[in-house]
Amino acid sequence: MKICVIGMGYIGFPTACLLASAGHHVVGVDVNVSVLDTLRNGQLHIVNEAGLADLYDSVFINGHLVVSDRPSEADAFILAVPTPFLHDPVAAENRQGESAAQGYRADLRYVENATRSIAPFLRPGNLVILESTVPPGTTENVVVRALQEEGVDVSSLLFAHAPERVLPGNLLHELVHNDRIVGGLTQEAGEAAASLYKSFVQGHISITDARTAELVKLMENTYRDVNIALANEFAKVCEYLHIDVWEAMSLANRHPRVNFLRPGPGVGGHCIPIDPYFVIEVAPAVTDLIQAARRVNRGMPHHVLQLLLRLAGGEPLRRVAILGASYKANVGDERESPSLEIAQLLREAGMTVAIHDPYVPPYNTSLETVLEGADAILLLTDHEAYQAIDPHFVRTLVARALLLDTRGLFNPSEWESAGFVVLRLGDGRKSALLESRIIQ
Ligand code: SAJ
Fold it and tell me: Which domains does the chain have, with CATH numbers?
């Protein structure tokens, strides 16, 4: 088939490559000129994704994937553009129900713009697939309506929603092997979309209706956000009860049907902290738990600041070394990263902050420089690379030997043997000791 993919981001671009390598003729469209230039030179704008460079080479050379700044006629159009959220707390206070959503609403302008951009190229029988994560009802109320407003005869078109669930850092493998949900506005549209994905998806493809598919994606990420909030809440409970949450959770997880996620300094990325609001927005009156979980996770950066002040034992911290800017381990993406929010909180508290992250320019500088003269080390992202740090060497660099580990990454006794006072998020045994220290 001839397929036009709108949005060359970390979903649209690999999807376009996979469709092209399956034999389709694909036009990849993006408004970002530097992305187009990079791709036209056969280079990649998405790094650290195994297999993507070779895949792109093959479809770039055989011409099955070409990139452009505008759509062209095709049998199928896939919209894979961002759906961030808009946060207007002031408006939230004034609008009934909005306050329940804490003022967060889906920003669908990219979906709307991408939809309008394909209007002139649509022909009867074309298939239009929305992949972006959206509030339930968007395929019908935004995509179809925008095309109608552009004067398109939508009765002859097929519409479907096909959310993705790939984990950044494992993109290609998951795009091919994960099961997929496809939701059609009509049964025919669902089947047409399913057969398109069958050309590269080896996972099972389930067909449902569009609204169900839109909600399923949000359910998956909301499930994760609520479970992370539960882990974070038990971290605070354990601090209060002088219990080590890391030990308690590993014991609880030995139960055959219990699987606690890991406490952390907050929930980042452009999915987990955002998608629950797409549910809250459409059902504010019945989402108490989902809203509470968002409040717990959004409160973690402030909790980390309190732990750091407790670790400092009343002495002011001049300079803090932060390990990890990225929102999660082993990838380089600082979008909505709690690390950057925590860095800001520390600066507002009068501290100087030096940040290191091997994956995120401009923080991928020398670790020694960042640690030099630090009054405290704050581990915020559990990059595997940090496992190799030698506490005894680090001891020679820092001004004060204080370590706050918010991911349970390091072995406390190794750092203590090098002379560090170590506090871990959720480790109540240590905070009891520290409280006594402060009292002294
Ligand atoms: N986090 C914790 N504790 C945990 C797990 C995660 O604090 O036990 C934090 C991470 O540090 C990070 C945030 O939550 O800041 C999100 O991490 P993540 O592992 O959920 O990574 P994402 O957001 O890149 O991927 C999620 C995945 N969704 C699910 O696992 C249900 C992925 O499958 C989705 O495709 C992706 O969101 C998305 O794009 O929707």
Answer: 2-85+102-208 (3.40.50.720), 217-296 (1.10.1040.10), 300-435 (3.40.50.720)
